[in-house]
């Protein structure tokens, strides 16, 4: 009881003191206000901040209503079920070698047939006649695709095309008058802006989560694939397995990104998610529909972000020779942001326009680029043949060059998905000079992505380095495509491919592929 009374007395004392403080505060507000103004003035003078006043009306929290955006978005997001048929083991009876050798009669049993694999994800309806954009990793390798709309109608879907470099795919269902999500402008997104993630995590359909844009132009090195184009919108909206391919929308209900990845050590949401900006994803989808393959424009430069140079120099684990190389780059740099030009491709549009090694690219058509990932995003909006204004900082002074973008072959021609490319089901890239040095070879192409096709069926994995096909050295993807096309068009007596190459771990492999099947 004494403790209770002690608490009561304490509360009463606090109340009395508070009342007295209120009276005292009223009597000396003017004096305190004068003192606070002097303190603020002293602080700003010390730290060289401009004198300013703050209106509480101008910083009031905005009452944001997500209901309209969520209602519109959920109808335009679908659930995708991707089924990959298991390869048959060939049936027949299997003799257990233990029983055979140790006298148990060699009894046989039926080998169990492997079961199909089923994965799921999300997609976004982008046209009333059934075109749906999603992630490549949602549909990659699938033999069957089933789409479920928000109203529970189900459709079989056809794969139109994929782009492993951006992890974007386009599929189609046969339907009309479908609800769509209008495209927004992902470049106008601001850090701190509210966004909604709409998808089907854990097969929970029509799930909406909210968050803010945490960063833009973020690269996360997905799978360590150097060919990937990464300039993600980073948000803290909760995204989990199954959300992949779903919509990231702004508060107007406009599509600003395709949810693609999460940062997690557990496989589930752990704070940040990443979306491909619609400025990239929309252009890729348009190319896949119109040409069957992406019309990828290239500057023809190898680049490294200025921030990456600084990070490398401060990394105690970085090798000394690497740090020396970075220090030489740093000595040429007079800016704190941008993409440093470290090397040119064999046929470089940037070099032809007058850009030099050591230049730091800081803007594309007047839009600032702070990182190499942001530069990738800007260039990804264009097609070969487009002309862009590239602004660089060269030894402290700015220069602008008009660059006509080229494709991977160094031309401005439209690249079409040839029969050979479709049959092979692979994406390829010629080895750059750095890769050649690291791998100890002078030529070769890398398998950078796989879809359904002969390569996957033969057992070839992503990352495989193709050196020789049918006794011909393969230096570019076009070398391989020509051999395949010649066989398919009957311009040669050969009926298949004999591929020699190796994996980056040094393991040499040989593959035989029959194109006559």
Annotate the secondary structure layout:
Blueprint: H1 2-27, H2 29-47, H3 67-75, E1 77-84, E2 93-95, H4 97-101, E3 108-110, E4 117-125, E5 131-135, H5 136-139, E6 144-148, E7 154-163, E8 168-173, E9 194-199, E10 207-218, E11 232-235, E12 247-250, E13 255-263, E14 272-277, H6 278-291, E15 301-305, H7 306-314, H8 320-332, E16 339-344, H9 349-353, E17 360-364, E18 367-368, H10 372-379, E19 387-394, E20 397-404, H11 419-424, E21 426-430, H12 433-439, E22 445-450, H13 454-458, E23 465-469, E24 472-473, H14 477-488, E25 496-502, E26 508-514
Primary descriptors:
about 525 residues; alpha+beta; Thrombin, subunit H; 4 domains; six-stranded antiparallel barrel; 14 helices; disordered N terminus
Distance between the termini: 93 Å
Rg, rounded, reads 30 Å
Q: Strand-residue fraction?
A: 25-35%
Count of the separate structural domains: 4
Largest sheet: 6 strands, antiparallel, barrel
How would you classify the helix and strand content by structural class? Answer: alpha+beta
* Architecture per CATH nomenclature, i.e. the level-2 architecture of the largest domain: Beta Barrel
Strand tally: 26
DSSP helical segment count: 14
- Kindly report the average pLDDT value: 81
Helix content, binned percent: 25-40%
Choose one word for the global shape. globular
Arrangement of strands in the largest sheet: 1-4-5-8-7-6
Q: What is the C-level CATH assignment of the largest domain?
A: Mainly Beta
Low-confidence stretches: 1-40, 89-108
What's the CATH topology label of the largest domain?
Thrombin, subunit H
